[in-house]
Amino acid sequence: MVDVYDPVQQLAIVHDDVLDRLGVDTVELGRGFCREDNWWVDWTLPDGTPCRMPAWAKPERAGTGWVVRAPSGRVMARMPEQAITFDQVYWPFLDDEEDLSRIEELYPEHLWTGMASPPGPSISGPAELAAGAHALRASTDRAILGLFGGNLLEMGQFYYRMDNFLMMLGGEPQRVHRFLDALMEVHLRNLEQFLGAVGDSIDVICFGDDLGTQNSPQISPRMYREFFKPRHAILWGRAKQLANVKVMLHCCGAVRPLLRDLIEAGLDAINPVQISCRGMEAEGLKRDFGTDLTFWGGGCDTQRVLPNGTPAEVREHTLHQCEVLAPGGGFVFQQVHNIMANVPPANILAMYHAVQDFNARVPA
Asked: Engineered SS bond to 93: which of 98, 145, 158, 217, CB 3.0-4.6 Å?
């Protein structure tokens, strides 16, 4: 049975036997939770495949597609027929009054914080979070990643809608600073609680902020330095004070112009290293940033090569990426982003077998 671990992106759990077979060295903290059947309900994927969803997600049929409702009953996300992910359709400070004191209160009301992956609402507080983290730590020698979030640019887009927040950055900078200051209070409070519970069980804390597009950053380096770099430095610095962790940022797109600033803010690793974007060629990234930043990704292009190449092409491409990114360390193999449903299984195996063969010929 397919268990949809991430209901927003429709990502499935990769079970331990597959992790073992492919030589995977990491596991996400949420895998220590929701192991009992009562946290899962039957559903059907858009292609007709039966699966299970987290019990709290509760997609509802609506015409030819699906909707997800917030606790208030408001529709916060839709997935049209033939689509494979949910899209946000409610933005709290666009559709209702802007009230910065309600940022955290409104987390359940919009898609990216309201439709959580495990542990989600399966735990009641820090004690249960700590217990699950300790149990997972005791059960595996894989590195454990704790997904925290702490998004800044994206949270503005979640609350005001992307187009509006980008215009606010240019036209209403003080309003943006007020929003980000209020958001930082929430993030820092939650960071203290999160690492207070799991800091001794995880190896990497994962933040998120997709700063890039296909061809450039969403914002200029000047805007990054004004609005986000100081706040990233505070969050990442505090994380390292609270626990012996490395800081990783999930950051899609063509972000090369921002990498030096991200490093200066305290970043240890970046994911997914979107090598198909402008300026993100592995050779240049390794040359210019490889001594200061770990590339957690970039191992295989998921835009074109993995879905559309032959197994031989996937293998050749993957070996090349490893040959470029691995020397001297600072590289954790991962394909660029999610493996989508249309990727041939033979290509997935070709990718992982290439990595295994590469590792076998590299001196320990």
From this structure: 98
